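Please predict the structure of the following assembly.
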Amino acid sequence: MRIALFSTCIVDAMYPRVARATVDILERLGHEVVFPPGQTCCSQMHVNSGYFDDAYSIVKNHVDAFSDWDYDVAVAPSASCVVSLGHQQPMIARHAGDEGTAIAAEDVAGRTFELSKLLIDVLGITDAAEQLGSYFPHKVTFHSSCHGMRIMQLGTRQSDLVRTVEGLEFEELPDLDQCCGFGGTFSFKNADTSGAMTADKVKNIESTGAEMCTGGDVSCLMNIGGALSRKGSDVTTLHFAEILASTKDNPLEVSGPVALTTTTGGK
Amino acid sequence: MTVTQLGMPKVFHGTGNIAAEESFTSFAGRELKNEQLRANLGFATHTIRDKRAKVVGELPDWELLRTAGSEIKQDVMARLPELLEQFEKNFTERGGKVHWARDADEANQIALDIIREQQAEEVIKIKSMATQETGLNEYLEENGVSAVETDLAEEIVQLGEDKPSHILVPAIHRNRSEIRDIFLKKMPHIDKDISDNPAELAEASRHHLREKFFRNKVAISGANFGVADSGTLSIVESEGNGRMCLTLPDTLISFMGIEKLVPTFQDLEVFLQLLPRSSTGERMNPYTSMWSGVTPGDGPQNLHVILMDNGRTAALADQVGRQALHCIRCSACMNVCPVYERAGGHAYGSVYPGPIGAILSPLLTGVEAEENNSLPYASSLCGACYEACPVKINIPDVLVHLRGKDVDAKHGKGEEGNKRQAPDQMDAIMGGAKAMFSNSTLLSIAERGLPAGGLAAGRDHKISWLPGLIGGWTKYRDIPEPPKQAFRHWWKKNKKNGPKQRAASDRVDVDALIAKNSGLAEELHRRHAGEAQEEREEAQEQAAELKKEQRREPDMVRREEDLLKGQDDSSNGTTGEGTSSQEGND
Ligand code: SF4
């Protein structure tokens, strides 16, 4: 199968290791990955901030970048960005009176999957240890991002996959359904409220005794990780793709307080 | 999408207590420093939240009920003029009088005129969001009429010369000893040795009110529902004070927003299931009163309803925003909202706090009203409100829509008369990001600057678009160390894309794969469900412990709940715990 990777802007610029882990997992399963080079961002930050006119040209860019290539499915390691494709892009195109782009956006969105959904619902993965060779001998808790949980209705797909990793000790997070306080520009527009929400999330994470908190959206993880780091906590955050990519032969290296790096080059 | 089009009549925005005087951000910033308030709100909202989740979980057709509620309300909005006239006709035929009020001032004036006709100097009231919206009590006070709130929590707020902070539990911010002090000060015949025992306080309140119920000739209410095909009005409540107000006085004046209609009597079936469960977490509320016109010799003989617009037509004209008018004021959205839980109700300025307030207030006043334009941003868009809303109002979508209108207004677009404002910091950030996100070549060049350490400085223009690189972010969080290389550059160096196009024979039937794997996710979920459930219970226990530690004076937060329980138990013998007062009255 040919899979087009939509890395998302924040992974591309700040967490390339998450995109590399995604590529690694998919190639391990024998699939061809392409990276449409015209891609940038889903436009969510602009839409959620009310900048609909600015968002329009970003939407057009995404639709062009992904309509141009022949692939079976596209994948993004983020529920939030995938939701934005189907939910917000057509609205933005229509707002600008561009029905053609709206329909093309719906088409691209219809072929783009969040990573855990692709792995389970399309590729039939239900046991990471067995089917992917995933090995990660650490105590891990999991944060469920709001958009995956409520808009995409991902259910427990991401955490269920994490639970099947060999050597991993899973700790359930209290108040799992509570927002981490990120909310895009909310995090600095209403910094105090956002900070209070994040502080509570961090307390819950620390109460689990886990070494790391994983999840499916690096934006939430950057928020949580940033607050943990500010507090001087040893707990770090990482994307679940990184955990799935880690194997006995090629383990994920924990290096430093915030950053983790993959050593995989993909084969 | 502009609301006003040329040749259309002017849009009338709402007036009254629906406009904030201070931005949400700065008000919330202050409230957040009040640790006690935060702990109290956290405890109270979580308690109601859990109760709601439990009783909602009991109904196998809950989602269908929500859909029905949403569709009935959509129908009402589509046929509002027709249904209002039908209601007017039926209410009038059955001996009532219908008044139309364009805004808060008109509604208050109409009520005052009726009260003056009756030569009353005091009136009794059932808790009502509509009259809070119009500021009726203050208006009457200025005109020499005192309005006595008969709902316990509302009475506490009124006697304490305070403002409500929740639409259902207005005195959520008061504790019992405070209540005792308020009563001692404001109730003339009270026993001076009264303790702060909830039952004693409820008893004092009952004596105080009973006398008012018998003495007064005029009552004022809101209305939960107005039924178009019968001209019926309905009030849903827990304490029984509503029933007293609706039956004892000779004159009854009900304030009702024009959106409160349902087409037929049978439609009430849906809402009377949705409201109590969403609101107080009860299966059924203790009192549901309905009145259809005048019955000679029984109940009020002089019956009025004031149909109030106050910005609702403007909200209706907004295609995305109009769903806010579906609201039945159950308060579920604020009880589940993480922002409300921290900032509290007063931060929203308007009488409508929480997620619904963040959309309804700016819709009623126009988002262009400067005071209210901070409200659509008072949300992380987590979606908990939408999930809980019994009539499926997609609050996050409306919030985003209103942000769009706010930005348009600032850019001199949208409603006529909007002036272009000088570009601010947000405009600069968004403009720069737009340029890069619309062109991958520009983005690629910018990303080359990542390892240069620009991030650490946070002032590098090339990377200023990154979420959170500004002000508020670093107040509470660190910025992660930037990577050596953006992903696109790594890809270019280490990988190669295949050709853009492929032979048709290389394509895979994805739909067939999905069909084959259908049910896998559920199977996987089930495999872990048992252990997950156990862990979850353990985790929740830990969280509860944590919260207990955070609560410095646990007794304080139970106050209102206890108080109302005391009232319920002794006054009407219901066994249900009354955590609330009036249910979603409007
Ligand atoms: S918007 Fe809020 S108060 Fe209104 S019906 Fe929905 S949940 Fe209830």
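Chain A touches chain B through 114 residues (CB under 8 Å). Residues B 278, 327-333, 356, 388-391, 393 surround iron/sulfur cluster (CB under 6 Å).
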